[in-house]
Structures are given as C-alpha cells and as structure tokens.
Amino acid sequence: MLTPSEDTNRRMLRARDAMDRRFAEPLDVPALAGIAHLSVSQFARVFKETFGETPHRYLQRRRVERAMTLLRQTDRPVTEVAWDVGFASLGTFSRTFSTIVGCSPSEFRATHEPVHVPSCFIAAWTRPREGTVVSEKRDLPGGP
Amino acid sequence: MTNHIKTLRITTLHVLDQEEALSFYCGVLGFEVKDDVDMGFMRWLTIALPTDPEHLVLLSVPGAPMHDQETAAQVRDLLTKGALGGIFLTSDDIHATYDAVVAAGAEITQEVVEQPYGTDFGARDPFGNSVRVSQPAEVSSEEIQRQYDAARA
C-alpha cells in the first residue's frame, strides 16, 4: 500500500511524534532510530531528508517552543522552565534560546502576553523556523 | 450575514486506504458510515459521529481521476509526513476516549494534558493525519484570559 518513500515518511513521523511526546526527557537517539527502524547512523540523515533538519535541531526547536509557551503563559521561574522543557543546564538553555529566538528568555517573557488558543496550535506555529533567528526586538517597548 | 451560509456540512480527509480508515474512524473513534457509493471512478465514502450526524467527513483517496499521478504522489508524501492537517474532536469523557484510543493501538502524539480551555490529547490516524480530542472546560474565553493574566500578575 505504501511506497518505500511513504513508508520511510511514516516511520520518521513516528520518531518525530515520539520527540513531540517526550521532548522533556533526555534524547535517546538509539530508541528514536529504533522507532524508525533505522540504524543510528542512518537515522539523522534520513530524518533530515524527510523534514529538512536534523533530529537534534528539531528537538531543540521543540524544547524552545515549549519554553516560549511556558514563559508566555505562566510565571514559572526561568530556571524551572529550562528544566521543564528538557535542558539540564540553565546556561545551555539560555544560549540555545537566544540563538533560536533572538533574545533572552527573560526578555521574551517581558515582551509577550499570554494568549488563549489551543496549545497545539501555539506549539506548531511558534516553533522557530529552521535556519532563521526570529526577530522579537520590534515588540520591545520603545522599539529597537 | 447576507450570504445565507448556515452549516459546515462535509470536510474532506485524505486517506490511503478506505477500509483501514473505516477501522480507525468507525472502529476506534465511533464514527458511523453515512454514504458508501461505488461510482466506478471513485468510492464516495462519508462518515459522521452519531452525536453529530449532520457533519460528514469524506474519506478520500488521492489518485486518478482527481489527481494526476505526480500530484497524487505529492499528496501521499505530505500525508505520510503528517503535513496535511487533520481533525479536532470533542469528547465528554476525555480519559475514556484516550484509554480506548490507546487500547486500539493508535499512535499518541500528546498524552492527556490539562489546559486552561479544557483537557486534550493528540493521536495519528494510520496514514499520518492528526487527530486531536478535547474535553472543553466549561469556561468562557474571557475567563481563560483572566486566568492567564492572574498567573502572570
């Protein structure tokens, strides 16, 4: 029923869904590769061919997207947000967040109000795009 | 309103196999077949929830004569990558629904989570379509926004 490439798509989607489901846990590449029925060495390459970015990069964006939501929607301290979304160190979290979003977690929180739309939409649409830094500076009070 | 449109009647969902789609949407989620007509060039297959019989879902297989071969392949590619959207459903017992979906072996994309607007989870149909199920909280949008504002105060 499925062509080989569609079967690959489906298996890679299963692995990506597992990342979406378990993003806060340490990334176990052999387990993800197992879900996709691929060797560890093939997994990252085929994932990138399918979705346009490496599994590691996808997971980073997934975690940063969740962090953006927690910063926006809750008053949890930044350190706890970092932990909640799967970063083991605050330094790595802040560096990764700033690289992807273009401002620090605290700066992001200060300039973004909570919104009420279903969380899966926020998750899908605020996930920063591959290879771009999202400019949030224009939202700062008083402009850049 | 001056255009007189009244209801959302049919939503199309691309599936790769109509029998497998029926197993999932009817066997697992509780839809029922409304129309099943072999028109020769295509099988017109619609389903609906018994509690929402006026809203039909057309289970459509990409391919000829609707699509040329290359277009059908592109649709199938996007579908199996999970890029074609999906459906949102509501339940009046989200935990029972979740248990049934899990027991049927469906793939879960998000475990049951309490949200300000209700409780929800995510799953995939056998082909890659997203299926979200929510039990809406009995609060207004204004109340949800007030809760967010209070949490941030």
From TrEMBL, chain B:
<feature type="compositionally biased region" description="Basic and acidic residues">
    <location>
        <begin position="143"/>
        <end position="153"/>
    </location>
</feature>
<feature type="domain" description="VOC">
    <location>
        <begin position="7"/>
        <end position="136"/>
    </location>
</feature>
<dbReference type="Pfam" id="PF00903">
    <property type="entry name" value="Glyoxalase"/>
</dbReference>
<feature type="region of interest" description="Disordered">
    <location>
        <begin position="123"/>
        <end position="153"/>
    </location>
</feature>
<dbReference type="InterPro" id="IPR037523">
    <property type="entry name" value="VOC_core"/>
</dbReference>
<protein>
    <submittedName>
        <fullName>VOC family protein</fullName>
    </submittedName>
</protein>
<dbReference type="InterPro" id="IPR029068">
    <property type="entry name" value="Glyas_Bleomycin-R_OHBP_Dase"/>
</dbReference>
<dbReference type="InterPro" id="IPR004360">
    <property type="entry name" value="Glyas_Fos-R_dOase_dom"/>
</dbReference>
